[in-house]
Each structure stands twice: as C-alpha cells, then as structure tokens.
C-alpha cells in the first residue's frame, strides 16, 4: 500500500519506458485515462476536504463475510462523507458495468470495514475504468445499505458455498470459474436451448427468439470453453470418443525477411508495399493536436453495423426506415 495526501512532496523519477519489454503506447494511453480520472476525483475532493487521502494497491479483506475473501483495490480516495474506489480494467473482451457489481461491492465493503473507524464517510462510490472499451461506469451506495447487503445476502450465501452446500447457478460469472468447461449445471443451462429443436428462426415466436438471444452469447462462450478444454486435455493424452489430434493448417512464412528483400531488390524488383498509416498510428506520429489541425477534416466515422443488444445497453436505439414510415403514417 502507498498513500499520499494533499501537499505530499513530488519525487522526480526516471522514465521507465525504454526498459519495458511489454510497453505499448496504447497501454500508456489507457493508464493515463485512468490516472486522469482519479486525479479529477481527487481535485474535486479538495474542494470540500482539506486533507483527502489516496491509497494505491490497497489490500482488502472481506473474510468477515466471505471466508478467505480478499482482494486489492487499484485506488481508493477518501474525503469527507465519501469513500471512492477505482477499478482499472485494461481488457476489451467484456464490457464491465459498476451497477450492483458484486465484486466491486465486496471491495467497497472491505474498504468500509477497514477505514470506517478512521474516517467519517456515509457514501461508498465505486468506479470501473475500462479505457479500451470507452467505458467509465460509476455506482454509489450508502454505507448502511452496503453493510445490510453484506449481512442479509452475502454472508448466508458465502457460508453455504464455503461448506459445499447451496445450489449451483449458471450465468455470465461462469467465465471466471476454473471448472467452467466441465460444470454440469452450466452445460444443462446452455443445452436448454435444445427445447426449440433447432427449428428455423422464422418458426419461432417473438418470445422464443428473445429467449434464444438472452442465452446465445453464453452458449457460444460455453461451447468455446468446452472446445479449449478438450484440446488441452487431448494434448495431455486424453482421448475423446470419435475425435483425434491432427496438425492444423498453417501458412508459409519467410525464414529471413531481410535476405528476401535484398535478393528480390538485386533482381530488379520492389519487395515492399506502401500503405498509408492507420488513424491510430498516424495520430501517434503527428500527435493529437497536429493530427486534428492537418487532417482532422479528412477523417470521418461511418455508421456502425447494426447490432441487437438488450434494452439495458446505454447506447441510444437506432432509427430504422420502418420507424420513419410509422412517424409519417401518424402525421398523415
């Protein structure tokens, strides 16, 4: 844990980037977005609190409610009346929402247990920052509500789970489970789509189509997990009835690109192809400000491909030609 407060001395540090083997500019931009959001929160806290506190990589213990439960908060800012907790997520695969997010609420609970006797706050604000998905999601709850949730919901369920009792429940959380590929409960939940007997989509009712849409992503994820498990197990010597391991297809590749370029050049040919830099690479080359000044007017963002999502999705609904027709009919 590292902590600093208003007025803490700033220590000049060497730029670590030249020695980082995993460094990328995209990673730096994502991290900068996270830092800027935290600093914005800190500056706002200073308007009402003379000495807000910041805790980085703070270990949190919620084993009082979940046996052996613990985690690490990326950042916590504590000011008068409010504890703010930040979770930085770099991934792009899954859009994560802070609204009643159980993991984040457990972290908020643990932070409350840790700091409640030291600081005077009655609100816990939890924020997920997922820059590569353009997602910043915040959820606030009172300290009393959070503790009530822990007492009435978390403690009894966690006790049963720790004792190996209770009911299994398949859901999106299964993606983080170590037995997600072989769990029978998850298999049965996904195979429930077989009730439609693989009928043509046109033969399903609107309610049945909606039911399939609700389960489709989980079904695809489950099938992918099963295939990955089976391949891993087969590579370890396990045999599955009707299946065998074979060498997959591969593409040809040069053994020495420099030697190829030199040989082809000597033969009188141009071995390289020229291609304009992509928008991200061009922005990195010019810098955002110069990019906008020089070629900002030459950039456009086409409409995205229509995608069907749950009504809970925060993006506004598209207007289709049928909506326009209905609107005209109403006015007529």
How are the elements arranged and paired?
Blueprint: E1 2-5, H1 25-46, E2 53-61, E3 70-79, E4 81-88, H2 102-115, E5 121-130, E6 135-142, H3 143-162, H4 184-191, H5 206-235, H6 257-266, H7 279-286, H8 288-295, H9 321-331
Parallel strand pairs: 4-5
Antiparallel strand pairs: 1-2, 2-3, 3-4, 5-6
Describe the structure.
By secondary structure, the protein is α+β, with helices and mostly antiparallel strands. The chain folds into three domains: 2-6 and 18-162, no CATH class; 172-235; 257-294, no CATH class. It has helices spanning 25-46, 102-115, 143-162, 184-191, 206-235, 257-266, 279-286, 288-295, 321-331; strands at residues 2-5, 53-61, 70-79, 81-88, 121-130, 135-142. Strands 1-2-3-4-5-6 form a six-stranded mixed beta sheet. Helix 2 crosses helix 3, helix 4 runs antiparallel to helix 5 and helix 7 (279-286) crosses helix 8.
**What is the radius of gyration?**
27 Å
Distance between the termini: 67 Å
Number of beta strands: 6
Estimate the strand proportion. 5-15%
Oligomer: single chain
H and E order: EHEEEHEEHHHHHHH
Total helix count?
Answer: 9
Question: What is the arithmetic mean of pLDDT?
Answer: 83
Largest sheet: 6 strands, mixed
Features:
332 residues, alpha+beta, six-stranded mixed β-sheet, 3 domains, 9 helices
Briefly characterize the structure.
The protein has 332 residues and is an alpha+beta fold.
């Amino acid at each position: 844990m590292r902590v600093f407060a208003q007025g803490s001395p700033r220590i000049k540090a060497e730029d670590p980037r030249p020695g980082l083997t995993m460094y990328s500019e995209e990673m730096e931009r994502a991290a900068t977005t996270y830092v800027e959001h935290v600093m914005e929160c800190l500056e706002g806290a200073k308007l009402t609190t003379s000495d807000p506190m910041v805790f980085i990589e703070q270990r949190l213990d919620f084993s009082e409610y979940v046996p052996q439960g613990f985690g690490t908060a990326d950042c916590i800012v504590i000011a008068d009346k409010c504890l703010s907790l930040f979770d930085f997520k770099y991934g792009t695969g899954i859009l994560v929402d802070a609204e009643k997010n159980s993991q984040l609420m457990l972290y908020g609970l643990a932070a409350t247990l840790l700091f409640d006797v030291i600081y005077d706050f009655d609100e816990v604000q939890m924020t997920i920052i997922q820059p590569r998905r353009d997602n910043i999601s915040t959820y606030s709850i009172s300290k009393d509500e959070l503790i009530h949730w822990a007492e009435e919901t978390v403690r009894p369920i966690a006790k049963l789970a720790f004792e190996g009792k209770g009911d299994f429940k398949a859901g999106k959380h299964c993606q983080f489970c170590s037995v997600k590929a072989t769990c029978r409960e998850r298999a049965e939940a996904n195979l429930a789509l077989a009730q439609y007997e693989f009928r043509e989509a046109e033969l399903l009712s609107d309610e049945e189509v909606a039911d399939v849409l609700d389960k489709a992503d989980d079904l695809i994820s489950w099938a992918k997990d099963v295939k990955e498990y089976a391949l891993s197990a087969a590579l370890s010597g396990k045999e599955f009835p009707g299946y065998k391991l074979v060498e997959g297809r591969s593409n040809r590749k040069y053994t020495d690109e420099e030697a190829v370029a030199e040989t082809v050049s000597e033969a009188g040919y141009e071995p390289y192809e020229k291609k304009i830099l992509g928008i991200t690479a061009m922005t990195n080359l010019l810098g955002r400000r110069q990019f906008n000044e020089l070629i900002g007017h030459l950039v456009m963002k086409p409409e995205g491909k229509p995608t069907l999502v749950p009504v809970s999705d925060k993006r506004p609904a598209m207007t289709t030609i049928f909506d326009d027709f209905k609107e005209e009919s109403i006015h007529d």
